[in-house]
């Protein structure tokens, strides 16, 4: 391949195409997903026009609820896949790197009784996130938590599975070697990659094996019974999840009863999610007894929507976890149920941007106000002595936006998981599993980034740019 072609390599553009291709495929596979996208687009259009009307009526102030207009909203998605072996995980890492998606965070799912651990593959740089923020929550089966009998069965099945076509493996190698691919090769890479995530309605195991896997844990059957790592949901981001939920119910879409994550707030934090229930799909299995293919069913794929808010600091996350568990405890004797308990416990989570920032609960991106911009024009003549962030905000030289949370909330995921899959007897044993990040990273072939450090760096860089523009020697953090 010529160098000139390699230089046209654009991971962000490729990621956007990959996400769009997956979305088109999933619309064909799960028509309700297409309906959901329509509802989200409709709701978001209404929200944007309402907020614009409101802004025109009132003068904009610092503490105003921020909002992002499309296009990021229009295209934003996350997906989820489940993998069986270290080889599958390493290869997925190599493939996603071509799309500029890197492993961030370690998620232990034994806390919810699943023999899984996970990471999120996503862009990490601000510019890349702005171009296209696609992310894929990727779980790996923990064979160490399975009973010996099922571990042997799963081991055999997965050692024969070929999740990636030979051509895909070849293209991944070419991309790595040449730091790029020619245009025709990128088309091929995308179509070969899609095959890895496609749904297959013929199982690779017999009906007896399927039932044994499912008795161990439904998720084990989902991972080990099929030839692909079918994408199990693809989630659009909305500006108003309560409204989408309401609209889904009105249109008869079988949505979940409640929204996971923080309660409704003025200043959105982290992630709120809801889903419509998993589809029961017809699957063909081979039956040894009948020496023929028979019809069965499998439940795995579902629809989900999310609303993203500000990324919280470690301190902010601790407060979130604390209030959430208080709500769980309270809900046991609260007649309003869990949502009532949640609203009441979250009274103790500040709900205005200035306070969230000054208390160190959220990450923010600093920017100059128009006054700050003016001053930056004469930065050379200005007083350069140290100032604090809060002084600069008070003097209306500095402003900020909350940084969007780009990651996942395992507790939210837990609600989704358990609403879709039936409980089973071995679940308690799986709950006793300990997180095993070291082994996960060994299987991945690299370490996962710490999401808190990534947000911290974004905040620090933004403040540094403002410091330089204002001609100050230092800006102290309050
Ligand atoms: C993982 C689900 C996690 C989310 O939004 O928290 C997830 C799975 O179903 O395999 O996608
Ligand atoms: Ni999800």
TrEMBL record:
CDD domains: VOC_YdcJ_like. It comes from the Eukaryota. One of its GO terms (molecular function) is dioxygenase activity. Coiled coil: none annotated. Its cofactor is Fe(2+). Pfam families: HGLS. Its EC number is 1.13.11.93. Keywords: Dioxygenase, Iron, Oxidoreductase. Belongs to the 2-oxoadipate dioxygenase/decarboxylase family. This is 2-oxoadipate dioxygenase/decarboxylase. It comes from Byssochlamys spectabilis.
């Amino acid at each position: 391949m010529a160098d000139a072609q390699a230089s046209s390599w654009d991971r962000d553009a490729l990621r956007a195409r990959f996400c769009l291709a997956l979305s088109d495929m999933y619309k064909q596979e799960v028509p309700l997903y297409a309906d959901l996208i329509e509802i989200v687009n409709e709701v978001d259009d209404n929200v944007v026009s309402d907020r614009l009307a409101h802004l025109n009526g009132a003068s904009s102030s610092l503490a105003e609820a921020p909002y992002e207009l499309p296009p990021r909203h229009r295209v934003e998605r996350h997906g989820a896949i489940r993998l069986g072996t270290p080889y599958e995980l390493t290869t997925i890492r190599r493939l996603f790197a071509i799309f500029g998606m890197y492993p961030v965070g370690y998620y232990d799912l034994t806390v919810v009784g699943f023999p899984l651990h996970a990471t999120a593959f996503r862009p990490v740089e601000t510019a890349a996130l702005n171009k296209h923020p696609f992310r894929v929550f990727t779980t790996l089966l923990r064979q160490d938590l399975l009973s010996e009998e099922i571990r042997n069965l799963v081991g055999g099945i997965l050692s024969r599975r070929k999740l990636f076509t030979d051509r895909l493996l070849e293209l991944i190698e070419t991309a790595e070697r040449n730091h790029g691919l020619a245009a025709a090769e990128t088309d091929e890479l995308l179509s070969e990659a899609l095959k890895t995530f496609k749904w297959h309605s013929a199982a690779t195991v017999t009906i007896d094996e399927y039932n044994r896997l499912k008795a161990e844990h439904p998720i084990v059957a989902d991972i080990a019974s099929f030839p692909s790592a079918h994408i199990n949901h693809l989630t659009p981001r909305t500006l108003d999840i309560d409204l989408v939920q309401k609209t889904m119910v009105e249109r008869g879409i079988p949505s979940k009863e409640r929204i996971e994550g923080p309660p409704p707030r003025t200043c959105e934090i982290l992630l709120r999610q809801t889903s419509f229930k998993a589809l029961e799909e017809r699957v063909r299995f081979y039956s040894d007894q009948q020496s023929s293919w028979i019809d069965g069913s499998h439940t795995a794929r579902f629809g989900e929507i999310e609303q993203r808010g500000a990324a919280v600091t470690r301190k902010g996350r601790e407060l979130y976890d604390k209030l959430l568990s208080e709500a769980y405890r309270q809900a046991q004797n609260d007649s309003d149920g869990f949502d009532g308990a949640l609203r009441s416990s979250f009274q103790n989570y500040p709900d205005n941007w200035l306070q969230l920032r000054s208390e160190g609960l959220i990450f923010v991106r600093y920017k100059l106000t128009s006054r700050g911009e003016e001053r930056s024009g004469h930065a050379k003549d200005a007083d350069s002595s140290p100032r604090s962030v809060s002084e600069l905000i008070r003097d209306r030289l500095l402003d900020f936006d909350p940084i969007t949370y780009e990651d996942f909330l395992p507790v939210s995921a837990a609600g989704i998981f358990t609403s879709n899959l039936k409980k089973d007897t071995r679940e308690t044993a799986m709950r006793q599993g300990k997180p095993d990040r070291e082994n996960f990273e060994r299987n991945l072939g690299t370490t996962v980034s710490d999401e808190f450090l990534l947000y911290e760096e974004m905040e620090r860089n933004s403040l540094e740019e403002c410091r330089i523009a204002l001609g100050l020697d230092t800006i102290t953090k309050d």
